[in-house]
TrEMBL record:
Domain N-acetyltransferase span(s) in chain numbering: 104-230
CDD domains reported in the protein's UniProt record: NAT_SF
GO molecular function: acyltransferase activity, transferring groups other than amino-acyl groups
Signal peptide start-end: none
Organism: Sphingobium psychrophilum
Domain of life: Bacteria
PROSITE patterns, per database record: GNAT
One Pfam entry name: FR47
Protein name: GNAT family N-acetyltransferase
UniProt keywords, alphabetically: Transferase
Length: 230
């Protein structure tokens, strides 16, 4: 279903994250904000006014991108170049389905794993993963002979909701259920602390969405996504 209202924080997830859970990392003002580029490329405007849209355009880096999700991605901010667009399926999980087998041996990842986390993300491209994205929340992973082969963690954060993100598996270890197992652990921890897990997947990726449904996620809305540069 497609949400037609901005009354819910997930209708405008980047803005609400930048105003709450990401506020310490936000750059900009009350009209438009972006996260510190070292943490990611996401930005949002407070509303659709000409003043806010101009402020959003001013946040585009000289040699980089902004990723816009939801109402900000309907019409490009003035003076920017659109690199790509897509439709995202926004999914939420009020509960997580039990696993049919024991989870793999996993560890909580920390600063010493940062280089390996980013290398895995750049190899598999689960979404934007900047040099400090790993600091946005808790990440867990699976190692094989010391090599990080799968991980999952947290990204957008706002009262009552936390986004499951950074989910990826090295190509040589796919097909073993590692991604789903790690997502279950990450999402259940969110539920245990009183948050509802959410995530964003490309709406055209039917197999990915089908996997997330088996974990307990359901599509809440479809949101536009737009990547812009100068």
């Amino acid at each position: 279903m497609v949400s037609n209202s901005l009354s819910h924080p997930l209708d405008h997830p980047v803005w609400h994250s930048l105003s709450t859970g990401w506020s310490a990392l936000a750059q900009g003002d009350a009209r438009a904000r972006r996260i510190d580029p070292l943490y990611g490329p996401f930005a949002a405007a407070a509303d659709d006014s000409a003043d806010s849209r101009a402020a959003l355009a001013a946040l585009v880096p000289d040699a980089g991108e902004l990723w816009l999700v939801g109402p900000d991605a309907v019409t490009p901010p003035p003076g920017v170049t659109v690199l790509r667009t897509a439709t995202l399926a926004q999914m939420v999980a009020p509960s997580i389905t039990p696993a049919s087998s024991a989870p793999p041996a996993w560890v909580t990842l920390d600063e010493s794993d940062a280089a390996n986390m980013r290398a895995l993300a750049l190899l598999t491209r689960p979404g934007p993963f900047a040099p400090l994205t790993h600091r946005l929340g808790r990440f867990i992973g699976v190692r094989d002979k010391g090599q990080l082969i799968a991980m999952a963690g947290e990204r957008m954060a706002m009262p009552g909701f936390t986004e499951v993100s950074g989910v990826c598996t090295h190509p040589d270890w796919r097909g073993r259920g590692l991604a789903g197992a790690l997502m279950r652990i990450v999402a259940q921890a969110m539920l245990d602390r009183g948050d509802t897990p959410c995530l964003h997947a490309y709406a055209a990726h039917d197999r990915t969405i089908a996997l997330y449904r088996t974990l307990g996620f359901n599509v809440r809305a479809e949101l536009p996504m737009m990547v812009v540069t100068l």
